[in-house]
Amino acid sequence: MSDKTAPKQGPVRTYRDAGVDIDVADAAVDRIGPLVRRTYGPRVLPSHGAFAGMFRLDYDERLFARNYRDPVLVACTDGVGSKLLIAIQAERYTTIGIDLVAMNVNDLLCCGAEPLFFLDYIAVNKLEPARIEQLIGGIVRGCEQAGCALLGGEMAEMPDLYRRRHFDLAGFAVGVAERGRLMSAANVRPGDVLIGLASSGLHSNGYALARRVLLDDAALPLSQPVWALGEPLVDALLRPTRIYVKPVLDVLRHYRARPMVTGLAHITGSGLPGNVPRMLPPDCDAVLRRGAWPVPPIFGLLEHHGVAEDELYRVFNMGLGLVLAVRPKSSAIVARRLERAGEQAYVIGRVRRGRGIVEFT
């Protein structure tokens, strides 16, 4: 072979040289294993090292109260948006996983579904086992609050795609509902009472606007107390999204023989005007009373710094994370049961004939 055709000799190249460390990834997996197994129930089949997780939909053990007669699988996916940038800036990673679970399981709930299992996708610039453990720890706590298993996930180290210390999260949830008890807009009718469940704050929507107004334009310090909030801004911005699954499923199951809840709406991006109509038939409106529920201080701070009230209602949840439509004679019973489960429930309005919109009075 001539010198012209001989392969050029150079240094041995490895995956680690390219920025991806398989040994670190294995170490991270070892650290999170005990956390993940905390979410396992009897329906999770042992599958250590398998390429996918396995979960029993039906079961025969007497341990369980029931099987589904006509089960419908319900699935969704979501992330937490630019709330991640606050967590990165503050170097707080323990609660953002709760947000990830909440954004998915609260959506499943609006179909009347019980969350069965959750999967996560974490993409990072560089795998740091301690930080991964904090992220997964939050996801595990979210799954425990929702009563679902963290069945699997993926960690991807991509230094060419993400900036240093930056990462992204995505979540995927699968649930089940009895076909005859699926939530449908056809069940909602004029006269139904609307009950709102309090949010914990911004939840996981509108952060592009909140960051621009409070951090960029107003230049408020992230870690110092803000008088209008009574706490550091970072605490208000990173407070995790509330998970409503267990209290609401309790209501749906307890009154199964005589259904009282006719509709559910998760108040995320586009706020009350954009999400409440999703549970209404096209010939009904939701009439909401301003002042019928307390609005957390973070929204007043945004208004103080220039966000108009109409824009606040169009972008944020304004203090309500979930809205239920309930038969009029049952509204007090449902509200009391939700409050006994730890929720703050408010009668916020009614359904009337209309054209599928939200009207504020």
Record keyword descriptors for this entry.
6-stranded mixed beta sheet, 2 domains, single chain, 60s Ribosomal Protein L30, Chain: A, 361 residues, alpha+beta, 4-stranded mixed beta sheet, Phosphoribosyl-aminoimidazole Synthetase, Chain A, domain 2
Going by helix content, strand content and strand pairing, the class is alpha+beta
Number of strands: 14
CATH class of the largest domain: Alpha Beta
CATH homologous superfamily of the largest domain? PurM-like C-terminal domain
Largest sheet: 6 strands, mixed
Oligomer: single chain
Tally of alpha and pi helices: 11
Straight-line distance between termini: 87 Å
Q: Which percent band covers the strand fraction? A: 15-25%
Q: Give the tally of structural domains.
A: 2
Give helix % range: 25-40%
Indicate the mean pLDDT.
92
Overall radius of gyration: 23 Å
What is the approximate shape?
globular
Architecture (CATH level 2) name of the largest domain:
Alpha-Beta Complex
Task: Provide an overview of this structure.
With 361 residues, the chain is α+β, with helices and mostly antiparallel strands. It folds into two domains: 22-54 and 61-181, PurM-like, N-terminal domain (60s Ribosomal Protein L30, Chain: A); 185-360, Phosphoribosyl-aminoimidazole Synthetase, Chain A, domain 2 (Alpha-Beta Complex). The chain has helices spanning 22-37, 83-90, 96-109, 129-146, 207-217, 233-238, 245-254, 271-275, 297-304, 309-315, 331-340, and strands at 44-45, 54-55, 71-78, 114-124, 149-157, 167-178, 193-198, 225-226, 231-232, 261-266, 284-288, 320-326, 345-353, 358-360. It has a six-stranded mixed beta sheet. The protein has a four-stranded mixed beta sheet with strand order 3-6-4-5, covered by helices on one side. The radius of gyration is 23 Å and the shape is globular. The termini are far apart.
